[in-house]
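Summary for the steering committee. One of the milestones for this cycle was to obtain a three-dimensional model of the protein with magnesium ion bound, which we needed before selecting residues for the alanine scan. The sequence and ligand used are listed below.
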Amino acid sequence: MPLFKPNYYLSGISDLTPRRLSFWGIKGLILDVDNTLAAQDDPHLPKEIDTWLKAAKEMHLPMIILSNNKPERVAPFAKKVGLPFVARAAKPLPFGFAKGVKLLGLKKESVAAVGDQILTDIIGSNLCGVKSILTDPLKEETEGFLAAKRRWQKNYLNRKKLTPLEKEQEGLL
Ligand SMILES: [Mg+2]
């Protein structure tokens, strides 16, 4: 398994349907925050994500938040969505992911981590041995280091001809 390559690539977390979770053998999730569940440093929870989170909770899917951002950002957001969290996770180092797996109380083979960045979320998941799910960013970065990483990632995905799975693909609605 190449370190940079996600197991699955979706346009957004809302495309992670119950059928996909079951088909892919996923029993618990480690979730990134910035640009996966909300825009970068934005406390607002988009409606579509809110709906998805509520549905996931209704099916009693164990979930934990794992973010590289500071506790001042992550704690209020985690409280808003009612999930436990690990902040300053130092992704792509695998330790935060291992901690997440432990807190979920599941085997790592049945855990997937979802995030928008190959260089943190996907490499870290692959190093730890959980399944990796890449999503497109909620909002594309335009400046600084994050924009540079985003350019690199877009080039990588283009080069590897990786595109997000359609909702209808594989009959997995
Ligand atoms: Mg992110």
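Key point for the committee: The first strand starts at residue 8 and ends at 10.
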